[in-house]
Amino acid sequence: xxxxxxxxxxxxxxxxxxxxxxAVLPVHILQTGSGRAAFDRGDYDLAVSEARxxxxxxxxxxxxxxxxxxxxxxxxxxxxxRIASARAVLDWDTVVFEHxxxxxxxxxxxxxxxxxxxxxxxxxxxxxxxDDLNQALGLAAETHYQAGLVLGAEAAKARKREAARxxxxxxxxxxxxxxxxxxxxxxxxAGTEVVAFEPxxxxxxxxxxxxxxxxxxxxxxxxxxxYEFVRFAARERADQAVLGRITRVSTLVSPxxxxxxxxxxxxxxxxxxxxxxxxxxxxxxxxxxxxxxxDLRIIEVxxxxxxxxxxxxxxxxxxxxxxxxxxxxxxxxxxELKLASAIGTLIGALLGADKVVGPALPDTAPLKAxxxxxxxxxxxxxxRTYFSGL
Length: 390
Description:
The chain is an alpha/beta fold.
């Protein structure tokens, strides 16, 4: 019979649509059809809501009234069954949730069915469950309160945070409730990681560490879900400290690299003195790299125990290019050319490549700043991962 009723209702909708000249179906027909589909899926709460919307749009629309009656009856039976199951295992959170859902559908259906000819068929389902709900609220609050007491008695910070969550959960059901608020505040404070950033030390006197420090404070801010940043001056009252040591800031200058672009040959002299002069045009390049490494440790200040350590590295580089022309003397044999080249290389090594080859080395301050920012981008996820696990 239900399938036949659905089929007849669908045919009626199609006929109504056809009679309307292919216009958009009225809201009450659309909502009733949507509600019937929800009912067939077993989503009785949604079916009640859709039927209610249809009746508000078109009071007395019989298909919607029929749907509301059927959906309301089934919704009540469904929620009361779940309440009984939850009570059996003392799951008071679920009992409260189901009671609140019952109250919602009662509020939705009662005004529309109270004066309906269908009311006698569902009158027994309109029950005042206020006392049952209040009892469940008290039992749920008490359950979370007792769980908070048990967890809060343990010394571990993670347990203190769990206790805080339980005391906070109490207020979902009853507020105020005993001293749950005070216990929540105490547990949260005891479970919060208070972190002090010690100023990063730079081995070469650069300000790279300060840049990392500023970047971290800007990203994380003074407070988080399970942690709080304090100034280093307050470290004596901090439970933990994140200590950063920039263990390496080194500037590396690569050897000058040669790339032959072209060679120009010219004849000079005449007769027996005639010879070839070759001029080589070369592109020369030199790369300056700043390497930076930082040693991060999370230390329990009270005991000095190291909780976690990580070494992170970054670098920034810039390449200088210029062109040179050099005359190659063909009147020297290969051995003499090799010897001259070796002497030039030795002199360059003794005096410093930057003094004998190419332009002056670039200012490394921007490179250090770039390397520091790259390092901060690695430090932030490391800290974030640590804190998210708290």
